[in-house]
Amino acid sequence: MLPLVKLIRGQDNTIVEADLVELWQKHVDDYANKWKEQLKLHGQSDKFWDWEFKLEFIINRQANREGFAIEYEDETQGLMLIETQMHGSRLVEGKRLVYIDGIATAPWNRAYIQRPPKLKGVGTAFLAFARTRSLELGYEGRVGLHSLPGVEEFYDNQGMIDVGEDEDYDDLVYFEYGVFRSPV
C-alpha cells in the first residue's frame, strides 16, 4: 500500500493528507481535461507532455517504469513517472538510482498560475517518495532528474545537487540526490 502524503492548503497553511496512488487512466484524463488548457494558457514547459502515451506505452509495457499520482478530495494534484533499473548515478560511478522521468503538479498548485496555490508540497512529496523507492530498491536514496527550465531553484531548495547542464538532454540541468543519511 502506498503512503498518505502531507500537503499544505494554500489558503490557510493547514496540513492536509492526500493519497499517493498508482497512476491510472483517471489521472491521465484529469491532465487532458482539467490541466492541459491552463498549462498552455500560462506557457508552462510541460504543456505538451503526453501522459496518455506515458501510461499506455511506457508504464504499462515496461517493467522498469512506474507511474504515480497524488489525489486530494478525488482530484488529481500531481503526476510522476520514474525509471527504476537503467540509470546510473553521476555522483557515484557504478551505482544505480531512481530516475524521475516526469513530475508535474496541477496548474492550481503552481504559484506562477494561482496565488496562493490550492495545495503546496506536491513536488516535495513526490521527491520524498522517489527517495523511499530508491531505498526499497537498494539504491541508498539516490534519485536523479533533468529539470525543466525555470524549476531549477525548486530542486536546489530540496537539497538536490546541481550537476550542470546536460548537452545530451536539451541542455537541461541535471540534479541528483546522493546517499540518504537518516538524522541521528
From TrEMBL:
What are the protein's UniProt keywords? Plasmid
| Entries under Gene3D superfamilies matching the protein | 3.40.630.30
Q: Which InterPro entries match?
A: Acyl_CoA_acyltransferase
Name of protein: N-acetyltransferase domain-containing protein
Q: Which organism is it from?
A: Nostoc punctiforme (strain ATCC 29133 / PCC 73102)
